[in-house]
Amino acid sequence: PAAAAAPLDLDGNSVAPLTICMIGAGGFIGSHLCEKLMAETRHVVLAVDVYCDKIRHLVDPAPPHLAGRISFHRLNIKNDSRLEGLIKMADLTINLAAICTPADYNTRPLDTIYSNFIDALPVVKYCSENSKRLIHFSTCEVYGKTIGSFLPKDHPLRKEPEFYVLKEDESPCIFGPIVKQRWSYACAKQLIERLIFAEGAENGLEFTIVRPFNWIGPRMDFIPGVDGPSEGVPRVLACFSNNLLRREPLKLVDGGQSQRTFVYIKDAIEAVVLMIENPARANGHIFNVGNPDNEVTVRELAQMMTEVYANVSGEAPLDEPMIDVSSSQFYGEGYDDSDKRIPDMTIINKQLGWNPKTPLKDLLETTLTYQHKTYKEAVKRQMSQASAT
Ligand code: NAD
Questions:
Q1: 78 lines ligand 1 (CB under 6 A)
Q2: What is the ipTM of this complex?
Q3: Which of 6, 188, 359, 376 has its C-alpha lying 20 to 30 A from 172's C-alpha?
């Protein structure tokens, strides 16, 4: 297997096997990162999370060929003294743990701020005190709104890249007012980024900050009432998948006019592995990780998903495949949104030579095939039980 060959970093030096403390390893990104590290590297993973459904195939129990390579540590980083020991045992800590679903930002702002800022503090502190490297997951939401969004709607400058392209070391972070509690998440992530950066500057912490731009793929979030709470509102990919599986119209918030770039999880994970294995190129940097070529409005995303799902499932689309809902109906008071998010790729390209590969159409095909296979029968069962009671 690939794992047996002597692996080299981007500068031609051999990569020594690392012990990695991965916090939030049981989530969407964590599950893909664990799979990739197990399949293609020799690194050892200490997987930390409060639940492990998405990595059960790797840890419960670990298959014989992975013996000694991965272990699961069920703990809540809010209040567990084992955390420091695990960070000390590792060469590198990757922190993915967070509340990161937009439906929570304005309805559970305290939990959101605690999770994204307060709960991350001990992780940063233990890494700094013990001179351990940290890869911390932030978000593209730290950019907030584009500069161009404050110009009149048809202003020609809106088309100039400098008014919308988001650059790690140059673009400002532009959030709405405090009453728009949506920004609680972005603001907490911004402050933990600033704290990590300051630990680097003042105490020599070796860090890398990742700003994901809408990574999507299999195992993202949950389908309400099947493997998550029936009243839960996951991120947009799972919301639309849920509507398609139930043959309901897709709900477009505020006309679905926001523009987003979507990147395939497996492309994005390759960037993370490059960061892990090339510390000299990754330390001290903040990296955008996204696919600027995969830009659509949320309305266009809904249209594409409807078409792709029809092919995948063999079911014709509904006559009215989409309906409009207001953000206050869907998300409640205090919602707000970023208008457009195009990642500048200069830094990650120069430092790590990374480029995304998968076009949106292809990644939706793979993902919706997975959603259909994984959930269709369970959704049918759940719907017939619900109508019987
Ligand atoms: P996810 O919700 O699937 O994964 C987060 C994991 O962290 C979950 O398994 C959760 O159980 C765990 N966790 C949360 N709090 C914990 C605690 N106190 N103790 C132990 N475990 C805890 O989300 P994801 O999509 O995998 O995102 C991972 C990181 O990337 C987050 O920090 C998120 O803000 C960031 N991010 C992701 C995206 C994306 O496109 N997926 C975009 C922007 C930012």
A1: yes
A2: 0.99
A3: 359
